[in-house]
Structure formats: structure tokens, C-alpha cells
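Record minuted for completeness.

…
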Amino acid sequence: MAVKRCESNIDVVKAAEIRIKNVFGNGLPVFLSFSGGKDSLCLAQLMVNLANRGEINMKQLTVQFIDEEAIFPCMEEMTKKWRRIFMMMGAKFEWYCVEVKHYNCFNELSNDETFICWDSTKQDVWVRQPPSFAIRSHKLLRPRIDAYQDFLPRTTVSGITMVGIRTAESVQRLQNIASMTKAGNRMTSKKQVFPIYDWTDNDVWLFLLRNYVDIPEIYLFLWQSGSSKRQMRVSQFFSVDTARSLVKMNEYYPDLMERVIRREPNAYLAALYWDSEMFGRSSRKRKESEQGQEQKDYKQELINLFDHMEIFDTPHKRHVAERYRNFFIAVSAIATPEDCKHIYEGLISGDPKMRTFRHCIREYMDGISITQRRRENMDSKLTAPLSTLRWVDRNLLKPNDYNPNKVSKENLKLLIQSILTNGWTLPIVVRPDMTIIDGFHRWTVAGMEPLLSKLDGKVPIVIVEHKEHSEDIYGTVTHNRARGTHLLEPMKKIVKDSWMKAKL
């Protein structure tokens, strides 16, 4: 395992150093996903400190930087500086300027829902020119099809990738990392680890200060323009999270703003309409302006939208809308007006990366919001397992050593056919350590074709915690016994009757 649990009585810097040393200690190639932002700078400086103390070998390291074309000049210069530092210490540095797909937050304003970085058909309007040493193509890349999240993992299969993301950045990242930890895993399926996952914003800025790490000047500009510490996120201008930087860009990079608008004509609308439903925002200024206005019936608004699905006029918009519609149908009976507003704003904003949608789903599945209200009057012991429902890698599970239930190969084939016909209707019941309590045969067939390919190696689970091992055994027995038996003659009659009806 690449990351071990650290003691709780050490500070976050020491804990991060232990995680990094453990990754390098595997002897495998190590990759660093570098962006030039504050979190990447913290991770890079941690490695430099460890290398200077002789605790890690920088020759194991390959740094990867995806140049998204539309970036601040100071970010480019900062990345070049760290490229020199890493290469002088023996690490490799891969600077990619390739045609990768990036979702455009202005997708509601045109039919083109994506931004292609370094689009070869638009060289005359590139925001900037690529560096001479940049990698312009790669055999593992599908140009104009892959996002960088698809491409980079293919280049790192031989080792472990470290990423500077933190749970404090967003609810989605908190829930993603938390669910991974609950499952007993310390790495994602893409073999990624997050050494500074538990750092707060204050931890980041204090570490940069104490280590005299230079930061890109854009952070200073954002601070001066009134952005809070949580809002100072820097990346490609057309991302959902960072388009806000366009609002003030005319003040500190007027020439750059001109080039950005030439590249993406709709970008100027961010300054005019950023604080509107077009971008799914809900700021204090907007709330104040809406006071005294008649409250929208967001449930009815959603019904009206879903009655006119033709307005979602591209395949991706249609796909997103259908996902939202199915979710709304499932929860509409218990959803509050606030829940409907959340769903509505996610839908009309386009939600290109499905972040808002995933957040709604997690709230529903984890009982944080919608289902929590329905379970308030229920026995928590009876409903607790459902709050743990999730899809996980099949390989994380392990069979128990006491289940007496055996199934023939013929019945396993019938089980596969049942799942293909009816869908997966019963989750596998497991202990917190991923030992199977009930569902061994469902787990078995999930590793067989065609289910293995169709489910991408995933299975649904719920977690049941028992105090004693005897309770696990009792749980296995009662699950099997509760299903009863199927008498031959009545079952034969059911099959015969259904067959006759089908012929008629």
C-alpha cells in the first residue's frame, strides 16, 4: 500500500512528509501532477525539502504539467522556474501542450460545449504560443477526444501519482476522499495519492510563508480585488470554478483579456452576468437584490423544463438533463423547495462536469439532506446500512471462510442472466474490512464476462458493522435462510403461465 496511516499527534507538514517518503519508498516510479498553483507549490516544496535532507531520491520523480493554453503569464513563469528546480535535482519534467478537451463553462451560450486546448484549427487565435520544449503529441493521446484526466493516467501506469488536492477545497473532494478511506483503500483506481489532503487553507498559506516560497502574482491581484482565501483558485479561465477571474482581468492583464475574448468570444459575458442564474451563482449581492421578489416555484420550474427536453439541443446537454430528470423523479416526493432550487440551478448552469449532480446524489445516498428528513422518525439501526450504499472496485472485497451455501455452475449462469435482464437489484453486504457477509455469488459473477466489462469491475455494497464475529456468521445464515426455498411444482407453474401469456 502506497500510503500508511500516520499518528494523530503530529502536524500536517510532518504527516505529509511521511506520506511522500512512503510513496518513494516503494521503489516504483513517482509522478507529480503539477499546476503551478498554491497546492502544487506546497507539494513541490515538501519534495525539495525531503530531497535536500537526503530522504527521497528525485531521480524516481517525473513531473507532469498540462498546459491548458489559457493561463496567466505569471503561472507560466512560475512553472518554468520550478521546471528548472526539478531538473537540476535530477527529476524529469514533462510539459504537455496537446489537444485535450476541456469543458467550457459558457456552454449555455453556444452549441460548442467544449474548449479544445491548443486547437490545431485555431492557431491564429491561440491565447499564447507553446514553449519550445513542450511535448506537442503523444502516442497514448486521442487528440480532441481525451480530457487531460483521461490522458495522464495512461502515461503513469508504471508508478504512483501524487496530486495536491485537499478536502478543504470543496464538498465534492471531501466526500470523494472520505468515501475512498471508508472503503479501506488509500489510493484511487488511477493509483493516485493525496499527501496534503488534510491541509486547510491556513495550512497552505502558512507553509508557503515559512518556507519563503514565491507565489504567482495573480493570487495577490485576486486578494486585492476582494476574493477570500477560499476563492483564490487559479486554473484555465473557462472552467466552472475559475471563470470568476475574468471579471477583474481587465484591471491586471488587459492585453491577456483581449486575447482571451478573441479565443472565446463569450468570455466577456462573465464580467456582465457572472452574478446571475446563467452561471448558477448565489452570492450575497444577488440574494439582496432578490429580496421582496416572489419566490420561484422551483419544483414547477423543473417540471416545465423536463416537459420541453428539446431545449437541450446538444448530445451532452441532453445527457445531463436526462440524468437530472431521472434523479428528480426519484426524489420529488420528499424534496423541499430548497432541494428543488439546488437541482434547478445545477441544471440550468449546464453542470458540464456533473459536479452539482454528483453532490445531489451523494446527499441523497448518504442521508445528508433529502433522505435524512424521511428517516428522522425511523429506527436508525434499521436504516443505517443504506446510508453506506456505493459502487466500489470488486477486487476490494474478499469472501468469508464460513459460508456453507454452494451454487452450481448452471445456477451461476442463471444469476448472470438475471442481472442482465433485471439489472443489479441487491447490493452485496460487507463488513467494514470488505469481507463479504452476503452476496458471495453476486460477487463471483461480477468477475465473469459479460458483467465484468459492463460493470467496469465495480459492485454495489452496503456496510454492516457487527461487534462480534459470531454476528457476522449469523448475518450470513439469516440472509440465506430469509430467502426461503423454491418448490419445484409451483415454480414450474409460474414459468408455464408466463410463457403462455407471452405467446398470446
Q: What stands out?
A: The first strand starts at residue 30 and ends at 33. Residues 368-377, 484-488 have pLDDT under 50 and may be disordered. The longest helix spans residues 315-331. The chain has three domains: 12-210, 298-375, 392-491.
